[in-house]
Amino acid sequence: MSNLTFSWRVDEGAPLLLRTFLREKKQVSKRLLAAVKFKGGLLRVNEMEATVRHVVKTGDLVTMVLPPESPSPSLQPEQLLFGIPYEDEHMLVADKPGHMATIPSRDRPGGSLANGVLHYYKQQQLQATFHAVNRLDRGTSGLLIVAKHRYAHDLLSRLQQKGGVKRCYKALVTGVLSEKVGIIDAPIDRKPGSIIEREVGPGGKSAITHYKVEAESNTHSLVSLQLETGRTHQIRVHFAYIGHPLVGDGLYGDHDEGLPHQALHCDHVAFTHPFTDEVLYVEKNLPKEWRPFVECMHPIH
């Protein structure tokens, strides 16, 4: 996907600097604009090469050519199994398995969704790198938005920061919740002495989780969740805090419940497509390994 090109007509607010048009009207980030300038991209006004200091007028045709992209040499393509329930020229929505990390680490340089997506791009002959819009912990399965180029990543990240990307989760938790619909409002902070664990504490950052019990058995509950904030391990910490840790969560609960990782799944995402204005709704069924728990539950109405 080298030299991807975007063109627009200037239709309001002119005259103004090309930099202002791109930054304020088209939400091109300062970082992307610098990449266009210094890493092989191009700006044109009415088919003539221009700088960001060029003054554009109503009716002018502005063209932005993105610089070519290539992944870091340390990020290697790897054939891995994952689903792609939605894809277009600007993005894809991946279905990340629970055992798979979103990106590789120093200790685990392979086996991540990023490695798998790069292999997929290579098969499709796309010259692109991995731009995750949201992240899912290792052990958390489900839907993850991946931008195919830097401009899409800019727009989708901005949309997410403004609350325009709705992500809903399902979780299997231990025990039966007395309140079937509720809000957990408890600040989350780092746990002293740990670089990984979090805990509820008065000095932490605000964290709010909305939940609804969908089904339950005598020993477990299936809950749907929506986050008002997005703190690290928020769902896992909140449900451990109220005495109902996630099934299989060895960090905040009991790992030995028949699942190899925490039972947390991003089951749908919804947002307005930044290039087409289409409202997208992508949904994914629960993981198969949850069936032994769910099949013995009765629904909560």
Fold blueprint:
Blueprint: E1 5-9, E2 16-17, H1 18-25, H2 30-38, E3 42-45, E4 48-49, E5 55-56, E6 61-65, E7 83-87, E8 91-96, H3 113-123, E9 131-132, E10 140-147, H4 150-161, E11 166-174, E12 181-185, E13 188-190, E14 198-200, E15 208-216, E16 220-227, H5 234-241, E17 264-272, E18 279-283, H6 291-294, E19 298-299
Parallel strand pairs: 10-17
Antiparallel strand pairs: 1-6, 2-5, 3-4, 3-6, 7-8, 8-10, 9-10, 11-16, 11-17, 12-15, 13-14, 15-16, 15-19, 17-18
CATH superfamily of the largest domain: Pseudouridine synthase
Count of distinct structural domains: 3
The CATH architecture designation of the largest domain is 2-Layer Sandwich
Radius of gyration using CA atoms only: 22 Å
Roughly what percent helix?
A: 10-25%
Order of helices and strands: EEHHEEEEEEHEEHEEEEEEHEEHE
Distance between the termini: 48 Å
Shape: elongated
Which consecutive residue ranges, at least 5 long each, have pLDDT under 50?
A: none
From the helix content, strand content and strand pairing, which structural class follows? alpha+beta
The profile of the biggest β sheet is: 11 strands, mixed
* CATH top level class name of the largest domain: Alpha Beta
> Would you give the CATH topology of the largest domain?
Pseudouridine synthase
- Mean pLDDT score: 94
Count of helix runs: 6
Strand fraction equals: 25-35%
Task: Tell me the quaternary state.
Answer: single chain
Total strands: the figure is 19
Keywords: Isomerase
Function: Responsible for synthesis of pseudouridine from uracil.
GO biological process, one term: enzyme-directed rRNA pseudouridine synthesis
Family: Belongs to the pseudouridine synthase RluA family.
